[in-house]
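Q: (California timema) hypothetical protein, please. Structure only.
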Amino acid sequence: MAGAFFQGQIEQPVRGLTSLITHQDVPVLVAINAHGVYIIDDIQCTLLLGLKYEEMSWDFAKPSQEDNLECLPCIFIQFMVLDILVLAFFARAALKWLLTT
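A: Structure for (California timema) hypothetical protein:
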């Protein structure tokens, strides 16, 4: 089965006031195939999230500053665990992914 991989990042949860200052996004590897979307911590070699398309819904947001190369497009993935959760991942390839699904 064929799939595509691209680099992205997710926001790390903020815990306490000091983490607001030291807050950094977590680099991830995003994998997609005919069955679903998978978010992988490439450094820890850990699958953070794997969802089939029927288990999720998604939305897309353009960069707020399209002329700023540091401002990335975003895909929001909404899914159900015990409650509705939303994961946002940022990636330059997000728009290409959106156009092919």
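A: Brief note, in case it's useful. The first strand starts at residue 3 and ends at 11.
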